[in-house]
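for the writeup, i need someone to sanity check this before i put it in the appendix. the sequnce is what the collaborator sent (i think, or maybe the updated version? ugh). structure was predicted straight from it, no edits. if anything looks off just tell me and ill rerun, i have time this weekend
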Amino acid sequence: MMYSYILFSIIFLLIEHIIHVLGTWKLYKIMGFSLLEIIIPIYNIFILLKLFKKSCLWILFMCIPLTSIFLIVYLWINLIRLFIKNINIKHILWLFCSCGLYIYYINYYSSSRIKDINLYKFKPLFKNKKEYHMVFAIIFSFLIHNYVIQPYLIPTSSMEKTLLVGDFILVSKIHYGLRLPMTPLSIPFVHNTIFGFIKSYLPIKWPYFRIQTAEQQLIKRNALIVFNYPKDEHHSIIDKKDNYIKRCVGLPGDIIYINNGILFINHQSDELYSKQLKYKQQCYIIKTKYIPLNLNFIKENLSIKEIDIIGNKKNEYFYYAMLTKQNIFHIKQLCNNVFFIKPICFTKQQIAEQSMYIPWNIDYFGPLYIPKKGDTIRLNLRNCYIYYDIIKYEQHNNIKINNVFKVRNNYYFMMGDNRHNSFDSRYWGLVPEDHIVGQPILIWMSIDWDRQNPLNLFKWKIRWIRIMKIIDYNHYYLSMSLIFLFICVLIYFLFAL
């Protein structure tokens, strides 16, 4: 995989070099450079940097395909300024709106009317250090966003009470090994769409490759994981599929099943594995006598957002609520009129309409063996449908009943902590290892908004207690991020010399 990724990077840089030469060779000649100087890769960039009085360390941006695009565009803007006397913002907009074709217009049309140019009168693109520093801030933000830490927003309640709707989190992309980008041509700082329906990238796909070290951490059971949704039908390239966040309850080689809403991993209840599962939230029915519940009081003081009355009969009131065990304890302590609180579960005979595992549902599921890399699986009438997605994803051709195939990837089983309100692996299957993005590390902002009307700013409330809250207690990846940021700052000062 590594050699394939390097090969694709070299091919990309060569294509970029050809595009640059074809779009600027006449401009080079007018400036007095020979044909040999124009066509030599890297060197032709180097002479422009010297011409524009920029540090030679800028050439390092050519080593990374994604940042090389920034450098090429920057040099093209300088060339336009060099050959057009009264340049204004419209010329820069033409360059971007034409996807770079405007430099070809300058090269093949405008350059024919220019016989001589005084390079000594050239003024740098940035007249002061503030503008110069702004470019570096954009480039380094882009590098950090793509390779180290990326911000995310929690839009749904599938992870309550661990992560709440309105939590703004930072996700470490280096915790499980840095997965290099697979879409070289995309709009910076945008995931997969603009305005919700325009794709933000060109469908050019690079092979999967993840940089891992000997000290790299493995995915642990019950860790929170950000990953690309495997069944995203709108985006075929892995790193542009929608981002999901769930808890990894099943590791490669595990056997999992759910009985009466209780998850068992390798024949042991999941509550034996982690104290973090105290935040697990499920669906309950609450019955009160004579006096109804004060829903506003409960929502405000017990942080229960999903609770509604479903009916009443003969002075008995029934409520549907998503609760943790701690919520149940508090309700019983505060509300003397509560007659009972019971969990709501599917029966064995009820089959979830969206479940890919027939005849299972979210409360009676499995047993399911989670394949690991190197496993050999023999297909039979029972498991052919269960492992159909793996066979399709790994492109095992002509596999039939009683045939054996070898698994090429590790797979993981993801579940939300809000177990009765989570669209997870029980519905759409296992997550391949190449879909893993990283692990959330910090809640840097949290806003409690009206879920029926999130844009109503007047009802926004900041959850001060959740701001700058560390999500996990392992600081290994935080130290790695700090080291990377230190290197970025060091390079920045070297460039600024």
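The chain has three domains: 2-125, 146-273+348-488, 275-343. Residues 2-30 form the longest helix (29 residues).
thx in advance!!
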